[in-house]
Write a structure and sequence with these properties.
Chain B: Keywords: Signal. The complex is a heterodimer. Chain A is mostly helical. Chain A contains nine helices and no strands. Classes of the chains: A mainly alpha, B alpha+beta.
């Protein structure tokens, strides 16, 4: 019995230690893995760009969160960086992410889980706006979800 | 007089005070929160806890994140072949960590026990006597009702069901119900050991976004017969056992979920007959024959089946969810094939 508990504890600690598997580059490993053709399902780099643009459209219309993004400044640059990031997450390996690390970029903002969830809602709205399937949208949600740990600091 | 009244309802007064405190904090806007993503609060299961239809999940009910409090009112209606279940209650989730629930269930048994009720009524009245022994079967000649109160509590222990897509650790919660079945006489007639009992459970829930699927596994430590609607335990006592429950839900759209559930049930009353005044009703065969009811005695053997359901849950907004299900509950006491539609409404504030 003791042995069993020890095994469970070690497995648990190992998986917790392994969990921030994304690095500065933004690559995420999910369980189960994201489809290999995820980027195609998104309509390639152009589809990703469309999605990020409509994401920011919904974010800037949402009174719960738009002020946070306005503080970042330069929405155009944010759209550019997020497009790069998302291409990486969806498997477009030729892209090199030029943004700061997620944790560093969000450290001072004091983002709450409620605000993070508001962005997730905007993400689903953006998917519908660009006629993306719900299934493809969830691949993106799976890839970005682990950033919650780095982004939500309050 | 005023004093007596006050002492009589200390609990309801306390509850009223609690609700008033909650309402005032909500009005301040400090505590109230509805920051979860649509549908991620789950629906209300029949015992009142946040979860699926028949199984409690590790999710905390309502739309509050760790920043606040949220809750819901719920109502479930399940018209089966021989029974109709109404279940109404309220639940509150605190900081996405802790959940309290209260539900009052009412199971009208339709014509199921009418024959038994008629026989005992004919023999000596519902509270009369049989051969000098007082009878109180808890069964009326028509439309016997079983009422049950359920108080529930749940604590999220660890894990994150939604956002931890980069590991396999589920969200895990432990919880308990205290169930008080009001029709003790009927439970005695059906040979259940207890009318009041507690049960405990541990649930693990996880969403797998790449395959749009939510999986919940629950182990419930209980002695319940038909979730307690037919009491707890049987002639062999009321030792609890661990029974598994599984829910699998497919996320069809951001506001629509379909799925199925299975809950293992016990066999405390398996093969038991109905008992009246210490006598198995089968031993009343001659009497029943005299009354022209010879076919009845043979059908008075109880069985219990595992519960299954298939469901579709629709979340038009964060204030309302509508769950439609087809419940396959099998044998319930002396009646087989208890299948039927199930509707559950949940209003969140």
């Amino acid at each position: 019995m003791k042995q069993l508990f020890r095994t469970i504890a070690i497995t648990f600690m190992l998986s917790v230690a392994a969990s921030p598997s994304f690095s500065q580059t933004g690559k995420t490993e999910t369980y189960p893995p994201i489809d290999s053709d995820a980027l195609e399902q998104f309509g390639g780099p152009e589809g990703v760009r469309n999605w990020v643009e409509s994401l920011f459209y919904y974010i800037m219309l949402d009174n719960r969160i738009n002020h946070v993004f306005r503080e970042f400044g330069n929405i155009e640059r944010q759209i550019y960086l997020n497009t790069q990031l998302l291409q990486l997450v969806l498997g477009g390996n030729e892209v090199e992410y030029q943004g700061a690390s997620m944790a560093a970029a969000h450290a001072d903002l004091g983002i709450t889980l409620t605000q993070f969830n508001a962005v997730v809602e905007a993400a689903y709205n953006a998917c519908e706006r660009i006629q993306l399937t719900y299934e493809a949208c969830n691949l993106m949600i799976a890839g970005l979800a682990p950033y919650k740990h780095a982004i939500v600091t309050r | 007089m005023e004093e007596a009244k006050r002492n009589k309802f200390p609990l309801s007064k306390g509850a009223a005070l609690f609700v008033a405190m909650l309402a005032s904090s909500i009005s301040h806007g400090d505590l109230f929160d509805s920051g979860k993503v649509l549908a991620t609060g789950g629906v209300s299961m029949i015992d009142g806890a946040g979860g699926g239809g028949i199984t409690p999940w590790a999710t905390i009910t309502g739309y509050a994140t760790k920043e606040g409090i949220n809750g819901d009112l719920h109502y479930t209606y399940a018209p089966l072949a021989n029974y109709t279940l109404h279940s109404v209650g309220a639940a509150v989730g605190f900081w996405d960590r802790f959940e309290l629930s209260y539900t009052s269930s009412s199971l009208t048994t339709g014509s199921t026990f009418d024959t038994v009720g008629l026989v005992t009524d004919t023999l000596g009245g519902a509270t009369g006597s049989l051969a000098g022994t007082p009878i109180n079967t808890g069964i009326e000649p028509f439309n016997t009702t079983i009422d049950m109160e359920v108080i529930g509590a749940k604590v999220r222990v660890f894990g994150e069901a939604i956002y931890d897509s980069d590991n396999l650790i589920p969200q895990v919660a432990i919880g308990a119900f205290y169930k008080n079945n009001k029709n003790e006489d009927l439970l005695k007639t059906l040979k259940a050991d207890k009318a009041k009992d507690w049960e405990a459970y541990i649930s693990a829930t996880k969403i797998f976004f790449p395959i749009n699927t939510l999986i919940n596994v629950t182990a419930r430590y209980t002695a319940a017969n038909q979730t307690g609607l037919v009491g707890f335990g049987g002639p062999g006592g009321s030792d609890k056992e661990i029974r598994p429950e599984v829910s699998i839900a497919y996320l069809l759209r951001k506001d629509t979920v379909i799925g199925m559930e299975w809950a293992k049930h016990g066999d405390n009353l398996e093969g038991e007959s109905v008992e009246v005044a210490g006598l198995d009703l089968t031993s009343l065969q001659p009497t029943l024959e005299t009354l022209g009811l010879s076919a009845v005695a043979g059908t008075l053997t109880q069985h219990e089946s595992d519960w299954y359901d298939i469901f579709v849950a629709f979340f038009p907004n964060k204030n309302l969810s509508i769950t439609m299900a087809y419940a396959m509950l099998g044998n319930i006491t002396i009646t087989p094939d208890q299948h039927g539609f199930y509707m559950s409404l949940q209003a969140s504030f």
